[in-house]
Write a structure and sequence with these properties.
mainly beta, Jelly Rolls, three-stranded antiparallel sheet, 1 helix, about 45% strand, elongated
Length: about 140
Amino acid sequence: MPIKSFRGKIAGDGTDTIALHTSNGRQGYRITKLEVMPSAFTGDQVGIFTVNSVPFTPTTTVDFSNQSLIAVALVRTGNLLSETYTQDVVFDNVIFNQDIFLGFKNLDAAIDMNYHIELELVTLDLNENTVATLKDIRNLDIAI
């Protein structure tokens, strides 16, 4: 299936939206790759980058039981002479057909976060379309 690629930069404690919704909901997506990197490497930095199926406010808490959480990356950098940049990413193999929402929460220095995300296009039949849409609606109701 075709892959769509998106990239951008989120300011510290900020959010971004990737518009994916269509009028008929027959096109679904699944995350195949998520890469994040600070815009500047200055001293010790820690941050949490999250991808959700509903609008949210970035926080310092990650809850894997949250059904709207699609992916998360913990970003850690240190003094480049003695520590290396590391990231841990967790994916939830969910197919969605609505917009997705990205957020970044600083835990240390005020930094911006670059992101690159690849989504696999999945054609949904009527039943899959209905399930994906209802799931997003249910998660939206819970988040409000």
